[in-house]
Amino acid sequence: MNQRLLHQLQLHGAHFETTRFLIAVSGGLDSMVLAASMHELGAKLLIAHVNYGLRGAESEADEVFVADWAQKNKVPFLVKKVSTLDIQKEQGGSIQELARTIRYDWFSALLQSQDCHFLLTAHHLNDALETSIHHFVRGSGVQGLLGIQSKAHCLRPLIQYTRAELFQWAHQKGWQWRDDSSNAKSDYTRNRIRHEVIPLLKSFNPSLEQSFDHSRQQWKHTYDLAQYAATFLWEQCTSQHKDGLHIDLEILTKVPGFEHILYQQLQQFGFAQWDEIYRMPQLETGKKVLSATHVLIKQPSILVLLERVLDLKGTQYALNVPAEMTVPINISLKYETDISPPQKNSIVIDWQLLTESLVLRQPLPNDYIYPTGMEGRKSLGKYFKDAQIPVYQRPHTWVLAHGHEIIWIIGSRANRRFLATDNSQQRVEICWFEG
């Protein structure tokens, strides 16, 4: 078993000569087999134990047991004691989820502070099976059905073994462990799956764990292939523009199962309304779906993905000369002797024409401009419409305002009435730096 364990770790780039492992040890069968096996292999270890204070004297005895094992085997040991029930009263939520958050937050901190390269947990094949069933019952995609998997710095080297194999190995070695009495109860969904659902399934297939492991490997191959294809196809149907990421619906919707591509690529932005997102290619122009940080907007033949803009209506920044600012955008003002025509990123204005403060803000109702290259005066809304600036892009727009008269729609158009001339005595260059 030790050689299989060693091989499993080496597949993830763990080299025993230089790698230090942080092992999560509860004192139960699984984690004690992992700790003892790693110690036999001569690995550099740090044992981490969480005492949740949920089982009174039993929790205290677990802590003492793990501490004694670490001391006997001369392995560094750390413990975190928490009053989980008190935290639950303050924060709410389930005990199981809260305990999981507590331990993994602590493990993550230890990886950094204790100079450990990998966290090892003792999840085994039965754990993966229980998790897969749990995800199936709640509703899950292929990734959820795979159950528990290793991640970049969190490895599960026992995931190929059944609980029975670990028990047999510990018995042969004479290793000791402690039984958690709460595991025998059916208070939690996972325990009910373990004690009620899995025995029923095994009555149909006594080799359930092995069958699941075979299926899990096939699902993993299918999932990896689907992820690779989705990434490749995403690159074919997307292009970055100043107003956001454009998703070409003509290309996207020709792909069978294009919904998976949207799910794979958009979940990182916090979207959850998947049924609505999957229907967006058929919805009317202007339809929006929001996450906490992004917005997805339907436009003719495309979807546009962009970051949400904070509601800064009413927020304004008074500008003086000279000045440089980086929030909310990068902009500078300085006196200038030469005259140059307005550019996308700069204009030169006659400062003496200002009768009130020049401010940087977002557009407001009743704003207007005398745009260069056009006749007359236009409301800002009319200018946006004539210039074909999409509605979804307008919240990203910043303007230099003189009351309700706009001197510069930054990155777009200047007001011809305020541009410097040969007769201007105070010429000020205003520059905008993208990014």
Largest sheet: 5 strands, parallel
Shape estimate: elongated
User: pLDDT under 50 segments (min length 5)?
Assistant: none
> What is the radius of gyration?
31 Å
**What is the count of helical runs?**
14
Classification by helices and strands: alpha+beta
What is the spatial order of strands in the main beta sheet?
Answer: 3-2-1-4-5
- For the record, give the distance between the C-alpha atoms at the N and C termini, rounded to a whole number: 55 Å
Percentage of residues in DSSP E strands: 15-25%
Written account of the structure:
The protein is α+β, with helices and mostly antiparallel strands and 435 residues long. A five-stranded parallel β-sheet has the order 3-2-1-4-5, sandwiched between helices. The protein has a five-stranded antiparallel β-sheet with strand order 6-7-10-9-8. It has a five-stranded antiparallel β-sheet with strand order 11-15-18-19-20, with no helix packed on it. Strand 2, helix 3 and strand 3 form a beta-alpha-beta unit. Helix 6 packs across helix 9 and helix 10 crosses helix 12. The two termini are 55 Å apart.
Spell out the blueprint of helices and strands.
Elements: H1 2-11, E1 20-24, H2 29-40, E2 44-51, H3 57-72, E3 77-81, H4 84-91, H5 95-113, E4 118-120, H6 125-138, H7 142-145, E5 154-155, H8 163-173, H9 189-204, H10 208-237, E6 238-241, E7 244-248, H11 249-252, H12 258-266, H13 274-279, E8 288-290, E9 294-299, E10 302-307, E11 316-319, E12 323-325, E13 330-335, E14 346-350, E15 358-361, E16 368-369, E17 378-379, H14 380-386, E18 399-402, E19 405-409, E20 413-414, E21 427-433
Parallel strand pairs: 1-2, 1-4, 2-3, 4-5
Antiparallel strand pairs: 6-7, 7-10, 8-9, 9-10, 11-15, 12-13, 13-21, 14-21, 15-18, 16-17, 18-19, 19-20
Helix pairs in contact: 6-9, 10-12
